[in-house]
Amino acid sequence: MIESLLVANRGEIARRIIRTARRLGIRTVAVHSEADAGLPFVTEADEAVCVGPANPALSYRNVDAILAAAKSTGVQAIHPGYGFLSENADFARTVEANGLIWVGPPADAITAMGDKINARNLMAEAGVPVAPGSPDPAADVEAAVAAAGGIGYPVMVKAAAGGGGMGMAVANDEAALRTEYDKVRSFAERMFGDGSVLIERYFPRVRHVEVQILGLADGRVVALGERECSVQRRNQKLVEESPSPAVSPELRERFLAAAVRAGEAVGYRNAGTVECLLVPGDRDSDGAADEFFFLEMNTRLQVEHPVTELVYGVDLVEEQLRVASGLAPTFDPDALAPRGHAIELRINAEDPKRFLPGPGVIGTWVEPTGEGVRVDSGYVAGNTVTPFYDSLMAKLIISAPTRAEAIDRARVAVAQFEVAGPKCNLPFFAELLENAEFVSGDYDTGIVTRMR
Fold first, then answer.
1. Mean of the per-residue pLDDT values for the chain?
2. Is the pLDDT of residue 361 over 90?
3. Do strands 4-7 and 27-33 pair parallel, antiparallel, or not at all (unpaired)?
4. Closest by CA position to 315, among listed 104, 24, 45
5. How far apart are CA 5 and CA 2, in angstroms?
6. pLDDT recorded at residue 382
7. By three-state DSSP, how is residue 361 classified?
8. At what angle do helices 305-312 and 316-324 cross, to 10 degrees?
9. CA 51 to CA 60: how far, in whole Å?
């Protein structure tokens, strides 16, 4: 097992990784910006190194500073968490070129999946269902219009190098496509340094379902069930649950098999997620939709990984460290089976109505407790949520034997969670957990819009 680890991230995920590493007896090093010096993850690590000012480009994305911290503290490995440099293939290669262990997938897999057009073409070759779309980037707006003519409106205009729900727009007709194409291309060039644009069929009513995969040290790829991620604002997730209430046993089998094929197609190792669109169509006797398409592969640990951990009884960070160390998993890959239900709520420093960020000093922070209640937080009372980073403050994860019981426990936990100072979206979750559509399990990615 790895003996020392630098966590190249911040907040709740850095704290989460450090917690598992310490349980395993691994020495931990935190890197932090000047703005984050007082956060819990900094003091909970065995060592901490400031790598720059608040601007993430000068700190958490500062490759030279992070590598210097790794060398000065003598660590063996680097875990990137999610966001920042986690899906940067060049960073992964640089880490390994410096004699360090990269706790993540091979750089070639990151590269292959980082471009949405290349990824969808690879998946199609591997027999993974993909939505109707352009096999090559639309070089200009006329090419985009021609592609849409063959696909049929409405279409999704997507930045090929985008991620996290960014760089996407819907066009219902040619006039809208001409406008959105230029917007998406400009955004993609500015944000990702790559203006390549993909045109793909847009499905007005759809669910977002993903599969957790783990590429083992012996070369096998296994799937640890699916997560429902359809409660979103601005194409970004707010709630995740596992198992999905929309997935029947037969559909689950197809989902997991497709995800394993996806991982095998790129020689995947370590933790990753295959994201799919689940389209309501003909329904079988179980009431499950029967058509799904590959959306993208996230070549890292996901924010929502705790719901899989609770349903499958594994520690995914530990499994990541074991794979990176060349060790077998703690579980039997041939005997994976879900137990119960888990729901994750992302507690953000944002307005619960319009979801606009609202940073500030945390005056009150009281986390809920009780059976089946887990809180992965990045802050405590007295900390400041700054405007420099993502608004996520904590994840409230609830588990129970059934979905109905999980929802009941979540209602109580949300009522118990006290946050004062920054804006907070807890009132939204109180509303969602009483929403008939959500409670029924028959909802889609439009649920938040309908609630507003």
1. 95
2. yes
3. parallel
4. 24
5. 7
6. 98
7. strand
8. 90
9. 7
Residues 1-24, mean pLDDT to the nearest whole number: 98
Residues 6+ apart with CB under 8 A from 293: 129, 130, 131, 276, 277, 279
Active-site entry in 300, 322, 346, 409: 300
Rounded average pLDDT over 178-188 = 95
| Percent of the chain's residues with pLDDT above 90 | 91
Query: Edge-to-edge, what's the strand order for the sheet holding 27-33?
Result: 47-52, 27-33, 4-7, 77-79, 101-102
Distance CA(121)–CA(442), nearest Å, equals 31
Q: In this predicted model, what pLDDT tens digit does every residue of 123-177 receive, in sequence order? A: 999 999 998 888 889 999 999 999 999 999 999 999 988 776 789 999 999 999 9
Sequence letter at residue 246: A
Give the angle 106-210-443 at the CA atoms, nearest 5°.
160
What angle do the packed helices 107-114 and 89-97 form, to 10 degrees?
170
| Cβ pair 198, 135 in contact under 8 A | no
Amino acid at the residue 81: G
**Which is more confidently placed, 226 or 120?**
226
How buried is 330 (Cβ within 10 angstroms: 0-12 exposed, 13-18 middle, 19+ buried)? exposed
Q: Three-state SS for 415?
A: helix
Where in 160-196 does DSSP place strands (E)?
A: 168-171
Active site residue 227: no
* Residue 242 confidence (pLDDT) above 50: yes
